[in-house]
């Protein structure tokens, strides 16, 4: 399997490709003016058709190194709610890049399949895929997406929020990649305790007790990082007596609480190092995290009654790289009163799901979007 970031670096003088994927991503923010790093699939839709074609062509060659001329069947995952015109553009790019047949699947459906959910059954499952550009929230049942919401808040926006915050607090300008590193190394989602009701709250028909000791009464200093158990995380107000409590295995044994970063001092204009704390990162990303939680709650509100019961049993499945943010599964469980499951390899769910559709094409046809524009 090929898993590469959708970035291409192009030399504008010679109109040649300098790098694609991981190599191109490393160049972001480091190029001279004549080399452009382009994300042709910004926010999941095609922003630059020519660059998208060239990137796909190189990815196809990478995936089929021995069969250079092979014309593969391609399944492309797009955000739910992508218009038919946008879908057409995606298909055109993939055909131009050398595909024999192109099929489209909605990202949350691909994520659900990649997470191993039985999407064909008449039971509701909720998937929240927190990617770089978008967060996709969807309820799937019987091979289809029943309710979906796609918001343009994802990991990239968290990075931007970190840049903005550090600029304000430290007069220090960070690069995009540096902000992403900070997010991954220090990022930590706060356990929210509403100020008006510090003892508990009522959401989704369940009373949710506040997590003691996570936040001070003023909601500023976190005393201890929340333990981050993996796998099913039965919410504390709905214990499952038959299953043993998950061992409190923190995702990272020794989460860093601060880290030095380098950027450009906005006052002197010179390179400068500053120490950034985990708490600063939590503060920086809070609004975006809340926007993700809000999208989940809005979707839950739109859930048909019959499926709501299924969701309580099946819980919410978290996929996408953003799901790896420490404390996010716990926060979502707290906010929704639902059991949350973080999948094993969240960065791969969509690719795994789309891959399954290629491998088992006939069996999986139902989950693909109908093809109105046969070539
Ligand atoms: N350990 C981590 N903690 C927090 N965020 C992470 C971690 N690892 C990766 N990410 C973030 O996950 C995002 C990438 O996730 P993913 O690969 O699922 O997105 P994508 O599929 O490329 O984007 P989209 O679905 O929006 O098209 C990036 O923003 C990255 O910074
Ligand atoms: Mg994705």
TrEMBL record:
Q: Where in the cell is it found?
A: Cytoplasm
Query: Which processes are annotated in GO (biological process)?
Result: cell morphogenesis; regulation of cell shape
Question: Where mainly located?
Answer: cytoplasm
Q: Name one GO cellular component term.
A: cytoplasm
Tell me, what is one Gene Ontology molecular-function annotation carried by this entry?
ATP binding
Q: Where is this region: Disordered?
A: 200-266
Q: Where does ATP bind?
A: 132-134, 180-183, 321-324
Keyword Plastid part of the UniProt annotation? no
List keywords of the entry alphabetically.
ATP-binding, Cell shape, Cytoplasm, Nucleotide-binding
Q: Which InterPro entries match?
A: ATPase_NBD, MreB, MreB_MamK-like
What protein family is recorded? Belongs to the FtsA/MreB family.
Q: What does this protein do?
A: Forms membrane-associated dynamic filaments that are essential for cell shape determination. Acts by regulating cell wall synthesis and cell elongation, and thus cell shape. A feedback loop between cell geometry and MreB localization may maintain elongated cell shape by targeting cell wall growth to regions of negative cell wall curvature.
Protein name from the UniProt record: Cell shape-determining protein MreB
What is the native source organism of this protein? Nonomuraea rubra
């Amino acid at each position: 399997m090929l898993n590469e970031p959708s970035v291409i670096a192009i030399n504008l003088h010679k109109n040649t490709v300098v790098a694609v994927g991981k190599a191109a991503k490393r160049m972001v923010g480091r190029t001279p003016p004549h080399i452009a790093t382009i994300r042709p699939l910004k926010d999941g839709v095609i922003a630059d058709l020519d660059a998208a074609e060239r990137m796909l062509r190189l990815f196809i060659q990478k995936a089929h190194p021995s069969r250079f001329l092979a014309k593969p069947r391609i399944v492309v995952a797009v955000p739910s709610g992508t218009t038919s015109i946008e879908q057409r553009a995606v298909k055109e790019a993939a055909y131009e890049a050398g595909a024999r047949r192109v099929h489209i699947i909605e990202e949350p459906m691909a994520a659900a399949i990649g997470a191993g959910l039985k999407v064909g059954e008449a039971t509701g499952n909720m998937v929240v895929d927190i990617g770089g550009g978008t967060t996709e929230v969807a309820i799937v049942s019987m091979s289809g997406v029943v309710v979906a919401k796609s918001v343009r808040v994802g990991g990239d926006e968290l990075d931007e929020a970190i840049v903005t915050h550090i600029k304000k607090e430290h007069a220090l300008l960070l690069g995009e990649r540096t902000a992403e590193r900070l997010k991954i190394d220090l990022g930590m989602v706060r356990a929210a305790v509403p100020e008006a009701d510090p003892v508990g709250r009522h959401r989704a028909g369940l009373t949710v007790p506040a997590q003691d000791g996570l936040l001070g009464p003023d909601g500023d200093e976190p005393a201890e990082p929340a333990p981050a158990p993996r796998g099913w995380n039965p919410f504390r107000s709905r214990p499952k007596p038959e299953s043993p409590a998950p061992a409190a295995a923190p995702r990272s044994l020794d989460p860093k609480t601060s880290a030095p970063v380098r950027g450009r001092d906005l006052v002197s204009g010179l390179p400068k190092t500053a120490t950034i704390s985990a708490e600063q990162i939590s503060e920086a990303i809070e609004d975006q995290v809340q926007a993700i939680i809000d999208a989940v709650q809005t979707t839950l509100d739109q859930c048909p009654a019959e499926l709501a019961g299924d969701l309580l049993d099946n819980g919410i499945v978290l996929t996408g790289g953003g799901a790896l943010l420490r404390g996010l599964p716990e926060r979502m469980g707290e906010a929704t009163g639902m059991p949350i499951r973080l999948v094993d390899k969240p960065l791969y769910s969509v690719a795994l799901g789309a891959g399954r559709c290629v491998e088992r094409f006939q069996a999986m046809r139902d989950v693909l979007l109908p093809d109105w524009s046969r070539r």
